[in-house]
Amino acid sequence: MDYDKLLNQIKRIHFIGIGGSGMCPIAEILMSEGFEISGSDMNEGETLDKMKGYGIPVYMGHAAENIKGAELVVYSAAVKENNPERQAAVAQGIPCIERSVMLGVVTRRYRRSIAIAGTHGKTTTTAMLSQLLIGSGFDPSAIIGGKLPFIGGNSYVGQSDIIVCEACEYVDTFLELNPFISVILNVDADHLDYFKNLDNIKKSFNKFAKQTTGLLVLNGDDENTLDSVKDVALEKITFGFGENCDYRAEHVTADKGVHEQYDLYYHGEKLCNIKLIVPGKHNVYNSLAAAATAHYLGATPAEISGNLHKFGGVHRRFEILGTPGGITVADDFAHHPTELTATLNAAMNMGFKKVWAVFQPHTFSRTAMLLDDFAKALQIPDTAIISEILPVRETNTYNIYSRDLGAKVPGSVCLDTFEEITDYVCSHAQEGDLILTMGGGNVYMCANKILKQLEFDHR
Description:
The chain is of the alpha/beta class. The chain contains 17 helices and 21 strands.
């Protein structure tokens, strides 16, 4: 079915799981275009309250009658075929479309769509670029995978022909997109339960690049990225530290790793100085990608420098939760060895007396296939505490356990529950230390437990 054409012929759209972080922004954009939106969800939450605040009819729970009057039904990947609303839609001949497909339809309605792809850094870079463009008066729409304090959420509805969104490679969902500009931050071995090997990942990024209509913005220091797009006949600009990069960071300095500062050069000419308030070399790369894209669109050096300096981060990206008793508690989404390495190296250079890394492994497959890489990364902090592996969508056919990882990390501590981890770290951490929880699952709950316990202990 031609969903692009269908969207020009209908008025009423129903969202199953409208409270999801990926569903809410699409509903907001379509509502702003004049579509009549309804939705349903199983759980109350902040995004659901936001939808209700717009006057959108939202039904708690899923039932066939919820789709009454709908001409198109959008569902998230978590909504299975046996969902009563999906079943009712099929029975009534109402077209159904999965969220990632709908994202492609929506972004194609913008003349200048920008998709941020890469194994690591998508959310932060999408947020950086969105804040930069909004702050520079471009008035883009934005769909971000995390909460950006600057806009008070993970979406923004602008009035221009620009939209910025993340392009996730998992199960090839980014192949639903046809961006005008594609930013590729890096290409690394991940999601091997689906891709099996790095070559297949490169092939998918190659397909994604070839679906781009205007420009590729590429990490010029990343061999996998360059190899993935070497046969793509599109205009390309590169960013990085290397001499051959179009946009280059020079004179990079850091104030205990907290304020990364560098001079931004374009084809050998200095554009501006950029001072970040988010730590780590990986964020220099993220900011270079945002700066290169914004400059291509017409942002001035002053706008680039000023807005990147104001960027304070995204929810769950080295997010400082509190400092009770002089102990800093932070939380980070890092769940791949490359991400752990980047974040932990940044943490170790921030001047803390001791860094405690609380890591929740995410999926059996990733833990098993990248075990040695995880072990190497977890040797960076002063002490690594490892929780049970979060299975997500898998069963443990790999016969892998957190203790297998712990055995490869000298001095590490393996504890099953968040309660045990909280008791352990709160009884050992001292003033001047950093406790950093890390993982792609619900380890943020452990961070909150630690914060509350320390607040109680130091009241």
